[in-house]
Amino acid sequence: MTTLTGPTATRRLILQGAASVALLGLGNLPFGAAPARAAANDKYPEEAFKQKSEADAIKALYGKTAEPSDKIKLDAPEIAENGGVVPISVTTTLDKVTSISFFVAENPSALAASYRIPEGTIPTVANRLKMAKTTNVVAIVEADGKLYSATKEVKVTVGGCGG
Amino acid sequence: MASSIRVRATANGDTTEVQALIQHPMDTGFVKDAKGELIPAHYIQQLKFECNGKDVFVADWGTAVSKDPYVKFSFKGAKKGDDLKVSWTDNKGASDTITAKIS
Predict the structure, then answer these.
(1) What letter does residue B40 receive in the DSSP assignment?
(2) ipTM topping 0.90
(3) Which residues in chain A come in under a pLDDT of 70?
(4) Which of A8, A26, A36, B56 could form a disulfide with B75 if both were Cys (CB 3.0 to 4.6 A apart)?
(5) Residues A67-107: tens digit of each pLDDT
(6) Assigned fold of B5-27+38-101
(7) What's the pLDDT at A18?
(8) What percent of chain A has pLDDT over 90?
């Protein structure tokens, strides 16, 4: 923590805290009515990125659960020497793919990246992610309204989240 | 200032392959600097590719995307000479845009 001295600083913090809580409360109202279906619209899925566990993040992003599929090819190294840069790619032969998301199970927040695949775009994505430690990488493919997953464990020798 | 975005789009028949590399710190908010103070989170939240007035690829990113992010994808329906517009926005409200010609 940074050093905060004097009663004024503390008081200001408390006030700011109260104000932001109030703002958050207001901001959340529209979401209360209908659960955020981030993949379906254009908005940044803030809530899904805040979820710590993989299951919660999938739920927040899609609102349903995935079943494993052998039609998804998840390409990731067996061992990543540097957890800060792990090349991971996904390709699938599933039809009507609308989005592809990447989850790293034991990162501080599981959802790493989510890609929307409009019609005409080939359901193949390559990117580079950070991994805190040895854990499972999960790719979720949304195709024809259903969720499919592929999982692979990547061993990490040096974590990519500081620490 | 040079653009933070480097993009290469190559058309091969009906399919265009796009590779993009962006300069961005992608700070997670978990890392401490030399003085032991936390570096606040600073990361790209959304990256968008548009071609012929249509989104062809939209990425929503969290802090787990590596520093200086790289992404590769392919789409159909564009030809050589078409414009590909790439833009990003980060959690501090900064953004950048570039328009590349498909070659």
Answers:
(1) P
(2) yes
(3) 1-41, 159-163
(4) B56
(5) 999 999 999 999 998 999 999 999 999 999 999 999 999 99
(6) Immunoglobulin-like (2.60.40)
(7) 52
(8) 69
Question: Cα dist. A113→A48, A141, A152 in Å?
Answer: 10, 12, 16
Chain centroid to CA A54: how far?
8
Q: If you average pLDDT over residues B21-48, what whole number do you get?
A: 94
Domain map (residue ranges) of chain B: 5-27+38-101
Long-range contacts at B97-103 (CB < 8 A, ≥ 24 apart):
B97/B5, B98/B3, B98/B5, B98/B7, B100/B7, B100/B8, B100/B9, B101/B9, B102/B9, B102/B10, B102/B11, B102/B16, B102/B51, B102/B78, B103/B8, B103/B9, B103/B10, B103/B11
What pLDDT score was predicted for residue A52? 94
Tracing tokens 């494993």 back to the chain, one arrives at: A68
Mean pLDDT of the region B6-16: 95
Record: contact A108-B60, CB cut-off 8 A: no
Burial class of residue A54 (count of CB atoms within 10 Å of its CB; 0-12, 13-18, 19+): buried
**Residues in B 9-48 with any Cβ partner in A closer than 8 A:** 15, 28, 30-32, 37, 45-46
Nearest by CB to A129, which of B31, B46, B66? B66
Q: For position A27, what pLDDT does the model report?
A: 42
Q: Which helix (H) or strand (E) holds A57?
A: helix A54-62
Least CA distance to B26: which residue of chain A? A130
What domains can be seen in chain A, in order of their start residue? 38-158 (2.60.40.2470)
